[in-house]
Amino acid sequence: MALGRSMHGVAMHNSIVPVIFALNLRMKQQKGFTLIEILVVIGIIAVLAAVVIVALNPARQFAQARNTQRWSNINTLLNAVGQRMADSRGLWTSSGDCTDTLPSSATTIGSASVNIDLAACLVPTYVSTMVVDPSVGTEASSGYSIVRNSSGRITVSAPYSELGESISVSR
Fold first, then answer.
1. What pTM, to 2 d.p., does this model score?
2. How many degrees, rounded to 5, is the angle at CA 90 between CA 84 and CA 94?
């Protein structure tokens, strides 16, 4: 039997086309999503993304990491000053390249002329490199301050701390 004709002499093409067309319409109607379904899914994803971003808050996480670095840096500075004083029998002495004395008022640590330059006193014997604030510190101005009060206690602080945290250590 040839495809073009049936046993009665009527073209098969004419009777099969409407059936195939109807099947295609049904399949096309069942495929895909409605606009409402897509909008609901997008809304759910947006709410979940907002919850995750608020929970993680990357800016706050970075600020906390910088404050942790500040705590570590001021402890490093205070330990280095303490070790140098221990080597000098408890005194901060000016000798060799180290001509600065510890200030009696809070002074920024750094190589600029208005700052106290502790690098010559501490590097490389007590610290490998001079530490600086992770946000604003440079060699000229470390972003940390040091003071020695009348009773001999030394305080190193980080005035540029973030999130309202006060970072200061005394010994």
1. 0.70
2. 60
